Every structure is written in structure tokens, then in C-alpha cells.
């Protein structure tokens, strides 16, 4: 028993240390509580039944019979109870003394109600009232004042249902989302931005910044995959493309990174072979830890249907060889080189790079297979013959070496 109490106490201490700001929300069948702790500061609302504010939001107009409302902020407290006839009785304490229900007491009630509103209580029905009176800007202003993030849903719902948000308001909404510490709410809100809204470059930039600030790479990955897949109508411009890559390279999971890179490789070929898009993509792929992931992505890239007669640009050709040359697996390396040997429009310099890379493979049979594949395809220039013979000399087995040399004759 003592051990149980000790473990519970230890867990509470660790929770306090790890989560200096703690929010708890509970609401079932009209009974609930909201609690926020931050160090020695505590703010708490408890209630039962249906509660309605007065129109001027300075007093409680109605509590269903038998219901109650309690609010505490450190040493101050307010309690409003409804008897079976619906009559409300107050108990007020300002931290020093009990207050009667006179002008001073009513002023105290009004102040405590405003604190509850800022805390996030009374959101239901109130958001609609604010929207009807002041529109989107009033809702945004109210959202920025609410402390308990779990109580913002009513306000967010109305904002996303509104069809009158302009660019500045969308950016303001994204900044509010970005300031939240509730990652589930952030992810849910970011998911609700439409393809039409994200076609605007300023909105998309802010949206991507908010995605990048999410804590879990899984959430970021899912949002980015949807964004790339939708292609936002006009497509990813270079700035947004670079932002997607920058976010992805910071994922904790290589598997999540690979998913995003694979989706990016599916962009229209005219863009994927543009160095503005291709080179940053290749650099990002090269940073992955697992060779098989890099191999699969490079094969996908090399296998894309390019515009007729368009070769892989030389700098990209060299980048692919450089990435493959750092694989931990010669089998994976050879597979990429075989695909490269089938490309069209390879220049003499590129053939030379590919042949030299072949000569560095660990296994003789791999070099033999690849050089035999290259021999009938490469131009028969003196310089390439020399590079080819040098690679062939790295083969230790005489029979294989002879086959490779004869293939060049």
C-alpha cells in the first residue's frame, strides 16, 4: 500500500515537472469541469445542468433546477446554485472575505464571469452570437483571448464554415492555430484548409510554416501528402516546394520522409526534371539513412516518362551516381546503374562516370554483368574505350575479364 501511494505521488510530481501547464476538460451529460494549472496558479470551472448568461454577460440568467456553477481562481471563488424552482443563490469569496449580493457582489460576479469567458467557458451558443454581431474579425479576436485551447472548437467551426474569409483573415487564423499547444486541434484545423485557399502563395506559406511546427512527423506527413496530391491547382512553385522538402528532412522517421519524396517524384515530368525541383529532391533523398529507400526512390525517378527525347540533365545524372556510390549494398548500387545504362541521350562524360562507378562495385560478377550491358550501348570513342578497359582490369576472374574485353572489340 505504501509503495502504491509512493508511486502515485512520484507520478504526480513527474507530471507537474514535465507539464508545467496542465489542462483537463471533462463534460458528460451536462456535468463537467475545466481545470488549468500552471505552477502555483489554478483556474477551475465545475458545473451541472444547463447554464445561460444574461444578454450583457454580467450575470447568470438561468441555471436548470438543481444545477450549479462553481468558479475558482486561486483563492477567489464563485458558486451559483439553482434550487428546484430555478431560483439562483450565490456564494462569493474574493480571497479575503465573503461578499453579500450588493453592488460590490454583483460587480464581483460580472468580473468572474468575464474570467470564465476568457478561460473558454460559455463557448456553446456564444460563438454564434459573436459571429452574427461582428463577423469573422470578431470571432478571430475572441479566439485570441481564450486561454483553454480545448474550448475553442465552436469558434473554429464557425470560421471554417464561413465563406467570407479573405487572405488576411486566413493568415490570422493560421497564426492562431500555430500558437496552440494542442497538436490534435492544430492538425485538425490545418486539414480543413481547402485547395482553393492554399492556391494563394501567402496563405500556403503560412500554412506550411504551421505544418512545420507540429511536433509529430506523422501529422506533418499526412498533411503534406494531401497537399502535394491535391497539387493546389496551379502546382507547387519553387518556394513552396523547397518548404515541403525542408519540413520533410526534419522528420524523425525515414519511412515518413520516403513517402513524401515518393509523392514529389510523381510531379509532372517537365517539373521533376527541372533542376529547380530535381536537385533539391536528389539532395534530400541522399540524406536518407537506408540504402533500399534511396534505391527505390532513384529507380522511380529514373523510370519517369520524360518528354520525348529529353535526357536526364548532366548534373542530375552525376547526383544519382554520387548517391548510389554511398549505398551500403552493391546489389542496390548495381540496380541503379543498370537503369541508368538504359537511359537515352547519355553524353560521353556521363558514360565515363557510369563506367568508372561500375568499376568500384565490390563483386566481379556485378561488374561483368553491367559492363556487358554497357558495351553495346556506349559510343566507341578512344577515351571511353580507355575508361572501359580500366574498369575491366578491376575484374579478378580471367574468364569474366576476357568476356568483358571481347564485348568492346
Q: How would you portray this structure in words?
A:
This protein is an alpha+beta fold and 409 residues long. Among the domains are: 23-102, no CATH class; 346-409, no CATH class. The protein has helices at 2-18, 103-119, 123-145, 153-161, 167-178, 183-191, 201-212, 217-230, 238-248, 254-265, 269-272, 275-286, 291-302, 314-324, 330-341, 348-359, 364-374, 382-392, 398-408; strands spanning 21-28, 31-38, 41-48, 51-53, 60-63, 68-73, 76-82, 88-93, 98-99. Strands 1-2-3-6-7-8-9 form a seven-stranded antiparallel β-sheet, with helices on one face. A two-stranded antiparallel sheet has the order 4-5. The chain is rod-shaped. The protein starts with a helix and ends with a helix. The model is unreliable at 5-22 (pLDDT under 50).
Short description:
With 409 residues, the chain is α+β, with helices and mostly antiparallel strands. The protein has helices spanning 2-18, 103-119, 123-145, 153-161, 167-178, 183-191, 201-212, 217-230, 238-248, 254-265, 269-272, 275-286, 291-302, 314-324, 330-341, 348-359, 364-374, 382-392, 398-408, and strands at 21-28, 31-38, 41-48, 51-53, 60-63, 68-73, 76-82, 88-93, 98-99.
Amino acid at each position: 500500500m505504501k509503495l502504491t501511494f509512493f508511486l502515485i505521488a512520484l507520478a504526480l510530481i513527474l507530471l507537474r515537472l514535465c507539464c508545467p501547464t496542465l489542462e483537463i476538460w471533462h463534460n458528460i451529460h451536462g456535468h463537467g469541469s475545466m481545470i488549468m494549472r500552471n505552477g502555483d496558479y489554478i483556474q477551475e470551472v465545475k458545473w451541472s445542468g444547463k447554464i445561460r448568461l444574461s444578454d450583457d454577460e454580467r450575470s447568470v440568467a438561468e441555471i436548470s433546477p438543481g444545477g450549479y456553477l462553481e468558479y475558482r481562481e486561486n483563492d477567489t471563488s464563485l458558486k451559483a446554485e439553482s434550487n428546484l424552482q430555478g431560483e439562483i443563490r450565490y456564494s462569493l469569496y474574493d480571497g479575503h472575505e465573503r461578499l453579500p449580493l450588493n453592488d460590490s457582489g454583483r460587480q464581483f460576479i460580472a468580473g468572474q464571469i468575464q474570467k470564465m469567458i476568457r478561460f473558454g467557458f460559455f463557448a456553446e451558443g456564444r460563438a454564434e452570437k459573436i459571429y452574427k454581431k461582428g463577423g469573422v474579425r470578431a470571432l478571430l479576436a475572441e479566439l485570441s483571448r481564450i486561454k483553454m485551447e480545448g474550448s475553442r472548437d465552436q469558434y473554429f467551426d464557425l470560421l471554417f464554415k464561413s465563406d467570407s474569409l479573405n487572405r488576411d483573415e486566413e493568415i490570422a487564423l493560421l497564426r492562431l492555430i500555430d500558437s496552440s499547444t494542442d497538436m490534435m486541434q492544430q492538425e485538425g484545423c490545418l486539414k480543413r484548409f481547402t485547395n482553393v485557399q492554399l492556391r494563394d502563395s501567402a496563405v500556403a506559406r503560412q500554412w506550411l510554416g504551421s505544418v512545420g511546427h507540429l511536433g509529430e512527423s506523422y501529422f506533418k506527413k499526412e498533411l503534406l501528402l494531401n497537399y502535394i496530391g491535391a497539387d493546389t491547382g496551379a502546382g507547387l512553385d519553387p518556394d513552396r516546394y523547397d518548404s515541403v522538402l525542408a519540413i520533410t528532412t526534419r522528420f524523425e522517421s525515414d519511412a515518413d520522409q520516403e513517402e513524401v519524396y515518393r509523392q514529389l517524384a510523381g510531379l509532372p515530368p517537365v517539373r521533376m526534371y527541372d533542376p529547380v525541383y530535381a536537385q533539391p529532391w536528389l539532395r534530400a533523398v541522399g540524406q536518407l539513412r537506408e540504402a533500399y529507400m534511396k534505391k527505390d526512390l532513384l529507380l522511380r525517378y529514373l523510370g519517369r516518362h520524360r518528354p520525348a527525347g529529353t535526357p536526364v540533365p548532366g548534373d542530375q545524372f552525376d547526383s544519382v551516381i554520387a548517391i548510389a556510390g554511398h549505398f551500403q549494398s552493391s546489389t542496390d548500387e548495381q540496380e541503379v546503374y543498370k537503369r541508368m545504362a538504359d537511359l537515352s541521350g547519355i553524353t560521353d562524360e556521363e558514360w565515363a562516370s557510369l563506367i568508372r562507378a561500375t568499376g568500384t562495385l565490390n563483386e566481379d560478377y556485378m561488374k561483368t554483368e553491367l559492363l556487358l550491358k554497357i558495351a553495346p550501348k556506349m559510343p566507341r570513342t578512344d577515351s571511353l574505350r580507355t575508361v572501359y578497359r580500366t574498369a575491366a582490369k578491376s575484374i579478378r576472374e580471367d574468364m569474366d575479364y576476357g568476356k568483358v574485353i571481347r564485348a568492346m572489340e
